[in-house]
Structure formats: structure tokens, C-alpha cells
Amino acid sequence: MRIAILSSEVVPFAKTGGLADVAGALPKALKGQGVDARVILPLYQQIDRSLLSTSIIEDVPVEWRGQIRPTRVYESDAVGAPAYLIDAPEYFATSSIYGYANDHERFAFFSRAALALVKHLDWQPGIVHGNDWPCGFAMIELRARRRYDDFFRNTRTLFSIHNLAYQGAFDPNDLWRLGFGESPDKDDFMLKGVASALKAGLISADALSTVSRRYAEEIQTPEHGSGLDWLLRARRNRLAGITNGVDYEIWNPETDPHIAANFSAADLTGKRECKQDLLRRFGMPEDLDRPIIAIISRLVSQKGYDLIRQIAGAIVQTGSFFIALGAGAKEYEDFLQRWHDSTPRQVGIYKGYAGEPLAHQIEAGADMFLMPSYYEPCGLNQMYSMRYGTVPVVRATGGLDDTVEDFDPARETGNGFKFREYKAGALLEKIREALYFYSKPDVWQKIQLNGMSMDNSWEAAAQKYTQLYQEIIELPYRTDN
Ligand code: ADP
Ligand code: GLC
Question: Does the CB atom of residue 24 touch ligand 2 within 6 A?
Fold first, then answer.
């Protein structure tokens, strides 16, 4: 089975969030199951060139805006499966992955080039698996292409939603330039007066998936449907929910090279050293008996910072340390700065994208990990936390609801703490509950071990993808969806 995975971010090349972790781990996990999976992404300026191999594919003919644009593609084996990086400096010699006025054009080109590449390699994929709005263009293009291009006649498409709120909206006047000016393509892009690459993908892909079962249900409701719930309800028979896995080669406290001391469920002593190291890094008193509550996230409203802001004072009053790593909206960065300035010995912050080492050091050194998200398609940090004996405190939404079980002291079951209502008071109550059990070391250790023994490896998820791919390959040929 040949699967071409397209993603705008892939670890270890380029990352803003969990999509990169997923796109970096899935190909390798699929390869472990005998699937010929290959990943394709743009070659951004920020990508470490030492990750690329010496083999280069020259002159891939990409049809673009009425001309053939010969495109160079680099190869790499850094993800444990073949990876191809599309070199188009006029679009990708950028300092960030997203955030440009012509993002739609950049990723439309990427989609076009990815399809041109597989054809140039004469590597006929059974499935083109696109992720999030940047790959919506590839989904709709394939629907049209297989009508007239025999090479793609038997290729099916899977479109995975990692976050429905990012819709790739742009001026519909640009549709013509991108090659989607005619109906039905044009109409399939249109959403509330703008063109949306996400909507085009959702309509045109043969099958859809998202990254947890709960989120697959939630996006069919007006509350979490971002204006597309009607479409997801209409296509619910083709919508699967597959929870992401964890790459335990990267996120494993027994072997993690980034942390001060390695540790395991059998021997947690190293975790104390990691805690001390973390306090030192953030210039806080090395008081190892006080709990550290941590958060690592993009600073966007999805992640629940509005709740944290409302109870910042009460969190400090519990006597806990608070450590936050995050990049994003200025209003949240300013809040973190003010909070730190008022209580520098208790609140440690790192504003910006820190790369991998600090994220690992926080996971290893903290006692609790907060994810009070308003919505969370899957969420990876709660699963990383569990493996590092760091107890997650989460809101019952999306993948957080599917992967975290609230601790039950009577049966000593559960791997974290989970609250339902999106209210600051509910979050504070849960933090207090968690702190109560933190003060009982035997019980706390039980909760840690419950989390550490969870198996969230990619193997199970990759098996589900393989099965889904097989089902999609067997779908009847169609040019309308
Ligand atoms: P999302 O994809 O919505 O951002 P996830 O929980 O799926 O949320 O994944 C977030 C990933 O990004 C994790 O690997 C996390 O460690 C990482 N991350 C988020 N913010 C930062 C940051 N500022 N610095 C370093 N890593 C970060
Ligand atoms: C998105 C979601 C996050 C998910 C990640 C990987 O960025 O916000 O919940 O874990 O994609 O699927």
C-alpha cells in the first residue's frame, strides 16, 4: 500500500504545534506495518539543511499559473521513512511557516508540487493523505485530476482535520489564478463569502478523519463546527476519529537526552533531579516539596488562558510554582509577563517557541500539567505528561476527554484530573483537588504510575489508519462527493 502524506509541518524539520509531531511519527509507524508511506512538506528557510540527504530530484515539472515551473525536491530520511521537501524559495524562503498574505497561494503551490512529484517519481499512491487546510488544495485538485489523468485514476484521498477553526480563508478573486476558477471547484471553496481551502478539502476528499473520537462528534455540533458542522453531519459516514499516538522514541523519560536525569515507572528518583533542574532554569527557589504546575501551549484562546487569567491570584495563593512556555497572542504574552513580574519567585515564564529541549525539561520536571482547553482536537502534551509521571489536569473536551480519566480515590483508578464546565471556578476546584492528592505522596505516586503505564504508542493508531486506508482504497470511483 502506497500512502503519500502531505503536511505543512513535520518534526524534526519544522513545527508550530502537534500536527508536526503527528506528521513526523505516522510515516514511521506505518512503515513498521509494511505500508510504503512517504511524507511531503515544503522546504522552509528555517529547516536545518543537515537533515537533508545528498540526493536531490531536479526539475519536477509543476504546472503553475499557465506555465511549467521546474522544481527541485530534496530528500531526507530523518523521519525513518522517505521524506521529500519541495524547494520553492519564492514561497518558502520565509522565516515562519504561516502568517503571510499569500499563504493560500503558497500552499496551493505546495499541493500542486506534491502531486507533480509523485507523478514524476512514477510512484502511484493508493491514497493521498492531506492534513489541515494547507492540503485542502490537493484534495480538490485530485478529485478533478483523476477524471482526465490516468496516473491518478485509482488514487483516493483522505483529509485529516487537526483543527477545524483554521480554515485557510482567502479572497475568492484569487481562485482563478490558483486554477480553481470554474464550477464545481469554485463553489466548493465558498464559505460565508470567502474562499476556504478547508471547506474545499472537506467536500472533495473521499474520506475524512480527525484526531480523536470525541472531536469527531463535537465538530458536528454548531458549538464546535466553525460554521461547517452541517457539512460534517452530511459526511458523517465518511468521518473517522483516530486518536494520535506518542512517539516514545522521542518522548521517553528513560532515554530522553534533553533532561537532567532519566527515570522510569520502576524508579522515579531521577524526576526529582529534573524538578530541581527546572526550578533552577527558571530562577526559582529550589524547594522540591512544593508542586510545580506547568503549561506548554500555543497562546491562543483555544487553550484556556482566559480561565487561567481569572484565577492567577488564587493559583499563587496555593503556594505552588507555575511554569508556562508559550508563543502566540500578545494579550496572553502580556498577561504572563505581568504575572511573572508580580511574583517572579513563583511564576516562571518563557515567551516564544523554545524548540524541543525545554518542552521536554518541563514535562520531566513538573508535577502537574494544565490543559484547560475550550476545545482540543486531540492534544499531545497530556499524553507526554503521563509518560513523564506529570499528572494532567484537563477539561473534558476532544482528545483530552478520550485520553484522560479522572482519578477515583475509592478505586484508585484514573490517570489525571478532569473538569467539565468551561469556567475558571471549575478549573480552580480541580487544581485544588489535585493539590490535595499531591500532599499524599502514596496516592500521588499511584496516579503517576497509572499514567506512566498507559500505552498511547503510535502502533495502535497506525493500525487504525492502515485499516481506514484499505477501506478507502476499496471505495467506488467517484468524481463527486
Ligand atoms: P496544538 O497542536 O494545538 O498546538 P498539541 O498538544 O497537539 O497542541 O501539541 C503541541 C506541541 O507543540 C507539543 O509537542 C508541545 O510540546 C509543542 N509546543 C507548543 N508550544 C511550544 C513552545 N512555545 N515551545 C516549544 N514547544 C511548544
Ligand atoms: C492540532 C490540535 C491538537 C492536536 C494536533 C495534532 O493542532 O489543536 O489538539 O493534538 O493538531 O493532531
Answer: no
* Residue in 208, 216, 245 with CA at minimum distance from that of residue 30: 245
- Which CATH number fits the domain that encloses residue 349? 3.40.50.2000
CA dist 265 and 424 (Å) reads: 33
CA 298 to ligand 1 centroid distance, Å: 6
Centre of ligand 2 from the C-alpha of residue 213, in Å = 13
Whether residue 308 is found in the same domain as residue 429:
yes
| Within-domain flag for 481 | no
**Same domain as 112, residue 34:** yes
Note down the domain range covering 417.
Answer: 269-455
Amino acid at site 106: R
**392 close to ligand 1 (CB < 6 Angstrom):** no
Q: Residues 458, 164, 368, 445: what is their CA dihedral angle, to the nearest 10 degrees? A: -40
Q: Which atom of ligand 2 is nearest to the CA of 373?
A: 9
Quote the pLDDT of residue 476.
74
Taking only the tens place, the pLDDT of each residue in 213-261 is 999 999 999 999 999 999 999 999 999 999 999 999 999 999 999 999 9
Sign of CA dihedral 453, 450, 259, 395: positive
The alpha carbon of 19 and the centre of ligand 2 are apart by a number of angstroms equal to: 6
Residue 208 above 60 pLDDT? yes
- Tell me what pLDDT residue 190 has: 98
Ligand nearest to the CA of 131: 2
Q: Beta 239-241 vs 190-191: how paired, if at all?
A: unpaired
Q: Alpha-carbon distance 224 to 350, whole Å? A: 30
Segment 374-381 shows an average pLDDT of 98
> Which 8-state DSSP code applies to residue 197?
H
Once rounded to an integer, what is the mean pLDDT over residues 88-115? 97
Distance in Å, CA 189 to ligand 2 centroid: 23
pLDDT at 359: 97
What is the identity of the amino acid at 219? I
